[in-house]
Amino acid sequence: MLLKDLLYKIPLLATAGSMDTDITSLTMDSRKVGPGSLFIAVRGTVADGHTFIDTAVAQGAAAIVCEELPAGANAAAVPFVQVQDSARTMGLLAANFYSQPSKRVKLVGVTGTNGKTSVATLLFRLFRNLGYRCGLLSTVQNQIDDQVIPATHTTPDVITTNQLLTQMLEHGCTHVFMEVSSHAVVQERIAGLTFAGGIFTNITHDHLDFHGTFDNYIRAKKGFFDQLPASAFALTNVDDKRGLVMLQNTAARKETYSLQTLATFKGKVLADSLFGLNMLVDDREVWFKLIGRFNAYNLLSVYGAAVLLGEDPADVLTLLSGVTPPPGRFEQVVSDDRIVGIVDYAHTPDALQNVLETIQDIRHADEQDRLPQIITVVGCGGNRDAAKRPIMAEIACRFSDRVILTSDNPRFEDPAAILEQMQAGVPPVDAKKTVTIEDRRDAINRAVSLAKPHDIILVAGKGHETYQDLQGVKSDFDDRAVLRDAFLKSERAKE
Ligand SMILES: CC(=O)N[C@H]1[C@@H](OP(=O)(O)OP(=O)(O)OC[C@H]2O[C@@H](n3ccc(=O)[nH]c3=O)[C@H](O)[C@@H]2O)O[C@H](CO)[C@@H](O)[C@@H]1O[C@H](C)C(=O)N[C@@H](C)C(=O)N[C@H](CCC(=O)O)C(=O)O
Ligand SMILES: Nc1ncnc2c1ncn2[C@@H]1O[C@H](COP(=O)(O)OP(=O)(O)OP(=O)(O)O)[C@@H](O)[C@H]1O
Ligand SMILES: N[C@H](CCC[C@H](N)C(=O)O)C(=O)O
Ligand SMILES: [Mg+2]
User: Fold this and answer.
1) What atom in ligand 2 is closest to the CA of residue 181?
2) Does residue 389 have its Cβ closer than 6 Å to ligand 3?
3) Contact assessment for residue 454 and residue 443, using Cβ atoms and an 8 Å cutoff
4) Ligand 1 centroid from CA 99, angstroms
5) Would the CB of 346 count as within 6 Å of ligand 2?
6) Among 289, 320, 351, where does a domain finish?
7) Angle at Cα 443 formed by Cα 440 and Cα 446, nearest 5°?
8) Helix (H) or strand (E) holding 111
9) CA–CA distance from 339 to each of 20, 278, 333, 479 (Å)?
């Protein structure tokens, strides 16, 4: 595609060199530049892409997009284009380069602190059951119908998203469901995408390391709704204090869902058990396979979005009742002697509290009138929001009978230092029931050794993840497999 066609309708500050140059690929990474590439220099959190312009040219870049023209740009071997905001421009360029794939599918984005993967995956599974070919962009994985493509981010960079949307279209997909992280909004990873709908789940404490303040974090989430077109719907959870804030400046059609108050889509939880949720949704009674009141919200938003996309409410509920949750979300691993293991991706204070409250609600005294004990194994990620560490430890103590603090992707931090910060949140009265075991496998083994039949072990924070990241080295680690092994070992020891 010629550079001048690629720049169609994109605001420019200045250009230098020929705009008739042929561009065969786009990249923001100098390491991926080859002949024909357009290199877009983006300022990041660690590096500044502008410092790699020379490298990109040396590697054969056909043209450069940047925020500052280098001295001598006019005489340079390649054309330069100066723009106000490279990251945003990259989204517009990607949309032009790939012929606006997001306009040719129904693209629905999901944002919120918790529940994005759950809602996006439920929508993907529901719409496939409704008979559509669908795409999914999520933390767990990207999917084009049955084809699984590993995901590196919750929301990919905007070039990758446009590439994936193009592949989805080639495969005949009509609907695509994607997570929109707050990082992605701020870093313009959704720039130039045309959404048919946006969903807000909730907003609670997370990522303050990146956003600085809670207000900035709210603004980031709201930024997604601010850029929805008038043709889209904006569906928000009005039981969340910030639900309506999301809709303040959107051009989209405003729609709401609630378990507590008047809303476009109303639900009520009739029963919540280890086997599923019984709900009234718009006055129809349904059983779902998901567990926990927080999932009642997820299901209600999925129902609302499906109806807003034009599906029949009764068909939606019938098919949604059979849909299973994504991996690592309240996933059960039960031992032969009936110890219940639950692996859950709760890695925020709110998620951890929700999951533990759910566990408290659904546990029942056994025949001997003994209430099952709750044993929680939890850690907090390194190089991520440190403020949540003591809070999560306190929540674990408040809702559990035993707590084992352990590691969860220490990344480049010292695991012992992360654990010290968690320990600071343990109330003195709970010190006796809490133990710190840095090695996650040992921590899970200890939990199993403490458990009696019917007790519930919550292993929180990693969910579907299959690695532990220490010093940038990812070693195999899967909570579900480690828990299964621990059960087997302990059963053998008892024989
Ligand atoms: C903090 C953060 O979000 N970082 C993301 C960001 O990287 P960055 O700003 O640090 O980039 P940088 O290293 O400073 O480089 C700046 C520019 O120079 C370029 N460069 C760099 C080196 C070089 O040799 N040549 C070169 O051209 C880079 O390609 C980039 O364009 O932009 C990169 C490209 O899109 C992302 O891969 C990277 O994600 C990192 C790996 C990350 O861990 N991100 C997490 C925090 C994240 O985004 N998480 C959210 C989910 C959060 C949630 O809701 O739970 C997500 O959407 O996944
Ligand atoms: N609607 C909800 N409200 C509160 N907590 C939830 C909700 N849905 C899920 N959770 C909890 O949050 C955890 C993560 O859920 P999910 O993966 O769907 O969220 P996410 O927003 O995609 O997370 P991430 O930001 O890592 O992508 C779940 O394992 C569960 O503990
Ligand atoms: N999307 C979240 C996932 C956190 C999962 C937890 N296991 C961790 O590694 O901190 C993040 O990148 O902050
Ligand atoms: Mg997710």
Assistant:
1) 25
2) no
3) no
4) 25
5) yes
6) 320
7) 155
8) strand 106-111
9) 68, 25, 9, 15
* pLDDT tens column, 101-160: 999 999 999 999 999 999 999 999 999 999 999 999 999 999 999 999 999 999 999 999
Q: At what angle do helices 116-129 and 293-308 cross, to 10 degrees?
A: 50
Does 219 share its domain with 340? no
Collect all residues with Cβ–Cβ distance below 8 Å to 59 and sequence separation of at least 6.
30, 33, 34, 37
The rounded Å distance from CA 109 to ligand 3 centre is 20
Of the bound ligands, which one is closest to the alpha carbon of residue 153?
A: 1
* pTM metric for this prediction: 0.95
Q: Does residue 117 have its Cβ closer than 6 Å to ligand 3?
A: no
Instruction: Give the domain range for residue 17.
Output: 3-97
Backbone phi, psi, residue 226, to 5° = -60, -25
- DSSP secondary structure letter of residue 278: E
Question: pLDDT of 294-309, one tens digit each?
Answer: 999 999 999 999 999 9
Per DSSP, the chain holds a count of helices (H) and strands (E) of: 15, 24
Tally the domains of the chain: 3
Q: How far is CA 407 from CA 220, 399, 436, in A?
A: 29, 20, 9
Closest to 82 measured CA to CA, from 156, 19, 136, 137: 19
Tell me which ligand sits closest to the C-alpha of residue 326: 2
Ligand 2 neighbour 257 (Cβ under 6 A): no
Centre of ligand 1 to C-alpha 211, Å, is 14
Which one-letter amino acid corresponds to residue 413? E
pLDDT at 493 over 80: no
Distance CA 346, CA 356 (A): 10
Centroid of ligand 4 to alpha carbon of 230 (angstroms):
26
Regarding the beta carbon of 154 and ligand 3, being less than 6 Å apart is answered yes
Q: Note the pLDDT of residue 72.
A: 79
CATH number at residue 17: 3.40.1390.10
Question: Do residues 157 and 39 share a domain?
Answer: no
pLDDT digits (tens, 9 = 90+) for 30-86: 999 999 999 999 999 999 999 999 999 999 999 999 999 888 777 788 999 999 999
Q: Which residues participate in the annotated binding site for meso-2,6-diaminopimelate?
A: 384, 408-411, 461, 465
Q: Which ligand is nearest to the CA of 331?
A: 2
